[in-house]
Amino acid sequence: MSILKTIPPFFSLTQPGQSRDGNNMSKASVSKVVLAYSGGLDTSVILKWLEDEYDCEVVTFTADIGQGEELEPARAKAEKYGVKEIYIEDLQEEFVRDFVYPMFRANTVYEGEYLLGTSIARPLIAKRLIEIAAQTGADAVAHGATGKGNDQVRFELGAYALNPDIRVIAPWREWDLSSRESLLAYADAAGIAIEKKKGSKSPYSMDANLLHISYEGGELEDPWQESDDAMWQRTVSPERAPDRPTYLELGFENGDIVSVDDVRMTPAQVLTRLNQEGGAHGVGRLDIVENRYVGMKSRGCYETPGGTIMLKAHRGIESITLDREVAHLKDELMPRYAHMIYNGYWWSPERKMLQQMIDASQATVNGEVRVKLFKGSVSVVGRKSASNSLFDQAIVTFEDDRGAYDQKDAEGFIKLNALRMRIAGKQ
Fold this sequence. Notes:
It is built from 12 helices and 14 strands. By secondary structure, it is α/β, with parallel strands linked by helices. The strands form 3 sheets. Strands 3-2-1-4-5 form a 5-stranded parallel beta sheet, with helices on both faces. A 5-stranded antiparallel beta sheet has the order 10-9-8-13-14. A hairpin with a 2-residue loop joins β8 and β9. α4 crosses α5 (151-162) and α7 packs across α8 (305-321). The chain starts with 31 loop residues before the first strand and ends with a helix. The relative contact order is 0.12.
């Protein structure tokens, strides 16, 4: 018997075979679904709901992208509900190498602040969902994103780009569990374990990976309310950070960090180390109200210690290795690129085209950057490139440049650039 039959009437869902607007859903055509499964409240409810409402086999996929949680409990929960095919995969290296690093080559920031920690993980998850669906012969994929958020768009645009014929099931757009309180009640009726944040009405809506942790919901829904300092997990409060700074030397090759303090590391190892160093100094906290793709404003808090260091350092090495107009063109295109990632267009032809240009610009972005971490801040205090530096001390010096630059040349340069303004000024 479906658990929906045993819960109070105000939890009633649509009739089998119908969506909330009454359209036929042809649920009988779905025999196997691959579910993006975290083992948390939402996806545990969805797992049970898919089995009951679609009468289908569910394959679970849990990605380890550095969320810092033990994933075996997700396997145990899936097994508890009779799941026969369970995929739990360590994708940390692929995540940083193929998604985080390419994004940071563009110095990507959304709306001037957000480093896109959640956004950049969704294309990888969508890719694996589609690949597992092909491997297992599944008819559909399913996710736990709500109908109010951005993730539904990101998952589904990615899925359709990679398999135009895939069926996508989004339970939050089908059922009548319209709030987290109703979801908690459903879980209780179904005997699903609930993890709550002590002292709050309901858990924060959190997303974690190797790049960041995000927090939404609870008291954060009031944009005037300051966040609880106990909420933060990866960073110490800047006020309680060490009184002495830490210096790191970061080695770059083709725009990517390949070493920390002269020790070569893999991409995931680099980000792990930077998270540790940045977190210890309170680097990377962010509290913003952002504009979601679906049209509403949302308040979120983010911790991105390693990414904050990466962005600052990357701009530092580019400052001496990139041609001025190349750097400025990248800066002009970056907001467009950031919107593509935030809105879910990672697998779009326009993002791929732009990525080729960005990657080509990084051929000369090689060298070392020295950063200083102190009390919540990260500063570039040194940069050098033995092979690609465009910084010519002989030209820029305030001392005798021994003829490297003829200052008289500036007169004609200025007059030519002022010509149109002088003509306009005579009108």
